From TrEMBL:
This is Receptor-like serine/threonine-protein kinase. Pfam families: B_lectin, Pkinase. Belongs to the protein kinase superfamily. Ser/Thr protein kinase family. It comes from Salix brachista. It catalyses: L-seryl-[protein] + ATP = O-phospho-L-seryl-[protein] + ADP + H(+); L-threonyl-[protein] + ATP = O-phospho-L-threonyl-[protein] + ADP + H(+). GO terms for molecular function: ATP binding; protein serine kinase activity; protein serine/threonine kinase activity. Residues 515-784 form the Protein kinase domain. It is found in: Membrane.
Length: 784
């Protein structure tokens, strides 16, 4: 029966294309057992200020060692090691810096110990790891681990976060992130993000200088009991329940870790942000040497978020908070006030004048004046409220009241407030006007101020003159640059397709570029692909797809393909450069993929490493997600197979050949089209796991001919190791092998109704949702 079923399914597979409807938000977290790393052997040590090289991850992207913090001392830390800004993501002694000569050692009994220069263990670092480890390792995920002899993880930095989470690092129930005190002061600050044991994700602030703690943001316990804050490799962060159900999203920014570094940090200002940093230069231009903030941050306006009856607010007492264009808060002093500490503006402000004498308030009235602050309020500090009054009355009332430090006025309502002022905020959304009471300056003070201002104006004039001169030179340089640029040879845009940046080539241009279509790269269902080189300074290498048999309906398909593909733009798709539609000649011009097809890569003589194969699977899924949900026209790729997946110079997966792409009609919804997990991707996933084709006759056992059948048999019998028995890396990562195979089996179900929806597939792949036991893929046929 098995042989008959194999033959029948093979015929069915030839008749039915693998129509793919899949999406992926993420990349899977790496297990420490499945990732290659450099071992840190017992007895190894590092010494602060000795010039010792840190312990780095295999790629060199992360490093573990001592980082100097100004003149204060050294942090035992983990940081991004390949960017000029060595951004710290974890530290062991943030509240007790080590000094020169301090050491960290992986002792002979397998314990990681941080000692000061005298050899005494630095306090508050005992959690660095118990004894018994066989070795340590800095992983490419940014996780430092201590492992036992059998490779089991005894301790890892991911379980002891400070202020940052990295992709694949999750926050468990009861754990927290604590913001640094200031930008370059890594000691514990005022703000923390906590996943409470009741399941609520909360951000709290300590009401400085009090010790009370107030929640200024939370997801809310009403959504269910959160067990883990999950951070996957595509930049998505969400709360997961104990049963694996996704409760709510925190961040949902798609990010490619192949091109960008990513971190999520609760900053010293109390805002939880995601950051990205480009890994490489582009187009010969250097990337800016700073982190780029993604659009979303939590909360969106920290100045408005923190406002409680006690405590100082987002900034200190007698100050106010204002959000800048970069969405970062700045603490400022109102008129008549100066900072208590210029080096720490969040400590608040103090009056720079003598307060009104409450013994003789009427005699002091003329010595004070009101200065206006628009869109400003100091909530929770008012002691008197007056309605049906005008602004002049509010001003006079505050001036004559020795207890009034400021009055706020809005809609014929006056609030008088006493100091110290708290929760100060200026924001366009605030309708209040703050009437600040300050002591008038005497004549001597005014003359001194004017003299100082005059000097400042003269200095500004000199600086402005220099700036103008520099600007003139700069403009001349720009003029020369653009003038010369116009002289450069540019390939003419013959009838460029409207609304798309596509080159309309002539047939002669492409015939010349390919040397008369001499070097064939491959042959597909619509024709052959040839290698070519465009003229010009950059000598761009291209792949020219020469379409054949395009009469009648084929011409319509060609036009549709050009229009649709021309609007697509994703790192996991082969980019269309241009086209030719001249007479009977119809050609598509793509960017050239130097590493060939996935088919040649995984079915060749040598097996690619397990990690890279998994990355390719993620890349294909991300590209399909874009085609299905994110591009302007939803596309179902109906021919997902290794031959249609190309690899660039970095072996990133690129989906190609949209000749069989079918567009969803605009009036159709996802519900009516019943889009489900795709057979094509399921088969591709199995081929990547096993490094063999789905159908192979030259196998040792007859039941192994069809990979999909054999994979299900192995799963049902609990013998999945047989699929990867010659792959040591995969054998060390059997939990992921099992998960991938189970997801693949769900995707290749003959009954389309049994195939999971795309979101469910994503959740199962990343481990956020438990994968249930899949049925026999052919059970639908057997029941017919």
């Amino acid at each position: 029966m098995r042989c008959l079923r194999i033959q029948y399914l093979h015929i069915m597979n030839l008749q039915l294309p693998y129509c793919f409807c899949f999406f992926l938000l993420l990349q899977l977290p790496f297990s420490t057992n499945g990732q290659a790393y450099r071992n840190v052997s017992l007895g190894s040590s590092l010494t602060a200020a000795s010039g010792d090289l840190p312990w780095t991850s295999p790629s060199g992207e992360f490093a573990f060692g001592f980082q100097q913090v100004g003149d204060a001392g050294y942090l035992l830390a983990i940081w991004f090691n390949k960017i000029p800004e060595r951004t710290i993501v974890w530290s062991a002694n943030r509240n007790n810096l080590a000094q020169s000569g301090s050491t960290v050692q992986l002792t002979a009994d397998g314990q990681l110990v941080l000692n000061d220069q005298s050899g005494t263990q630095i306090r508050n670092t005992a959690y660095l790891g118990r004894s018994g480890a066989a070795y340590g390792a800095m992983l490419d995920t940014g996780n430092f681990v201590l492992s036992g002899q059998a490779g089991d993880t005894l301790w890892q930095s991911f379980d002891q976060p400070t202020d940052t989470l990295l992709p694949t690092q999750n926050l468990n129930s009861g754990a927290q992130l604590i913001a640094p005190y200031r930008e370059k002061n890594y000691s514990d600050g005022r703000f923390k993000l906590t996943l409470q044991r009741d399941g609520n994700l909360v951000m709290n602030v300590t009401a400085y200088p009090l010790t009370a703690s107030n929640a200024y943001w939370s997801i809310g316990s009403s959504i269910g009991s959160g067990n883990q804050l999950f951070f996957n490799q595509s930049g998505y962060m969400y709360l997961v329940a104990r049963n694996g159900t996704i409760l709510d999203q925190v961040f949902s920014n798609p990010v490619s870790l192949q091109d960008l570094y990513l971190r999520a940090t609760i900053d010293y200002d109390g805002v939880f942000r995601q950051y990205v940093y480009p890994k490489t230069a582009s187009g010969g231009k250097n990337w800016p040497m700073n982190w780029t903030t993604l659009p979303k941050s939590i909360p969106s306006n920290i100045c408005l978020a923190i406002s409680f009856p006690f405590g100082s607010g987002a900034c200190g007492f007698n100050s106010y908070c204002k959000i800048g264009d970069d969405q970062r808060p700045s603490c400022r002093c109102p008129p008549g006030y100066t900072f208590l500490d210029q080096n720490d503006v969040r400590k608040g402000c103090k009056q720079n004048f003598i307060s009104q004498d409450c013994g003789h308030p009427s005699q002091e009235t003329d010595s004070f004046e009101i200065q206006d602050m628009l869109n400003t309020n100091f909530p929770h500090t008012d002691y008197e409220l007056f309605t049906s009054v005008d602004e002049d009355w509010c001003r006079r009332s505050c001036l004559s009241d020795c207890y009034c430090a400021v009055a706020t006025f809005m809609d014929r309502t006056c609030w008088k407030k006493r100091g110290p002022l708290a929760n100060g905020v200026t924001d366009p959304g605030i309708s209040d006007k703050a009437l600040m009471k300050v002591r008038k300056r005497n004549r001597i003070e005014e003359l001194a101020q004017k003299k100082s201002a005059k000097k400042s104006d003269q200095s500004a004039l000199i600086i402005s003159g220099s700036v103008l001169l520099g600007s003139s030179i700069f403009l001349n340089v720009l003029y020369v640059f653009f003038t010369n640029r116009k002289k450069q040879k540019v390939i003419p845009q013959h009838h460029a397709m409207r609304d798309m940046n596509l080159q309309n080539f002539t047939y002669n241009e492409l015939e010349t570029a390919t040397g008369g279509f001499d070097e064939e790269l491959g042959r597909g269902s619509f024709g052959s692909v040839y290698k070519g080189v465009l003229g010009g300074d950059d000598k761009q290498i291209i792949a020219v797809k020469k379409l054949e048999k395009m009469a009648g309906e084929g011409e319509t398909e060609f036009k549709t393909e050009v229009k649709v593909i021309g609007r697509t733009n994703h790192k996991n798709l082969v980019q269309l450069v241009g086209f030719c539609n001249e007479g009977q000649h119809r050609l598509l011009v793509y960017e050239y993929m130097s590493s060939g097809s996935l088919s040649n890569y995984i079915f060749g003589d040598s097996r690619p490493n397990w990690h890279r194969r998994m990355q390719i699977a993620f890349g294909v899924a991300r590209g399909l997600l874009y085609l299905h949900e994110e591009c302007s026209s939803q596309i179902i790729h109906c021919d997902i197979k290794p031959q249609n997946i190309l690899l660039d110079e970095s072996f990133n997966a690129r989906i190609s050949d949209f000749g069989l792409a079918k567009l969803l009609k605009t009036e159709q919804s996802k519900t009516t089209t019943a889009i489900r997990g795709t057979k094509g991707f399921g088969i591709l996933l199995l081929e990547l796991v096993c490094c063999r084709r789905n159908f192979e006759i030259d196998v040792s056992e007859e039941h192994q001919i069809v990979l999909a059948d054999w994979a299900y048999d192995c799963f049902k019998e609990g013998k999945l190791d047989l699929l990867v028995e010659e792959d040591e890396e995969a054998m060390e990562d059997m939990k992921r092998v099992e998960r991938f195979v189970m997801v693949a089996i769900w995707c290749i179900q003959e009954d389309p109704c049994l195939r999971p929806a795309m979101k469910k597939v994503v959740q199962m792949l990343e481990g956020g949702v438990q994968v249930s036991v899949p049925p026999d893929p052919s059970s639908f046929i057997s029941s017919i």
